[in-house]
Write a structure and sequence with these properties.
Layout lengths: L1 H24 L4 H46 L2 H18 L5 H11 L47
């Protein structure tokens, strides 16, 4: 029994050594092919999962655009809602890691200030220059950056 066990162990070691030598020379063994095909299958599975994930994101965007189109057909409010949502999303991106709420609140309060030449946001107006950039909350860019110098800053209909 011991001799047979020792012989099997020795044969197993010799076979492993042959396989290692074959791999070192770049020869393909049956085990190596199985190992590579297993890795390939894993990689293909990863690619399929990634593609499904991208497809899900695409479907979500398509669903959002269909919803916006329906809103536009039903009441014409879709564009307005979409613009408002996008502005809020941009503001949300700006707020990450920073507390801009107070600054935004101050701007919101100043929007109705009579000293501002663009105080009525809803009214369609021609191009105008704001006369007082220190009190006008609309004189800051949509992304929250500071206003351009007075001579360069014009506002269109909001």
């Amino acid at each position: 029994m011991r001799r047979e066990a020792a012989r099997r162990e020795r044969e197993g070691r010799e076979e492993m050594e042959r396989k290692e030598e074959a791999r070192g020379r770049g020869e393909k063994t049956e085990e190596g092919r199985e190992e590579r095909s297993g890795r390939r299958a894993d990689r293909e599975g990863d690619e399929e999962r990634e593609e499904r994930k991208r497809g899900g994101e695409r479907e979500e965007r398509d669903k959002d655009s269909r919803k916006e189109g329906r809103e536009e057909r039903e009441g014409g409010e879709g564009i307005e809602r979409r613009g408002k949502r996008r502005r809020e999303e941009r503001r949300g991106e700006l707020d990450e890691g920073e507390d801009l709420g107070e600054e935004r609140g101050e701007r919101e309060e100043r929007r109705g200030d009579s000293s501002c030449c663009i105080s009525d946001v809803a009214a369609p107006q021609p191009l105008q220059l704001c006369q007082d950039t220190s009190t006008c909350g609309l004189c800051t860019e949509q992304d929250g950056s500071s206003a351009l110098p007075l001579q360069d800053k014009t506002r269109t209909n909001l």
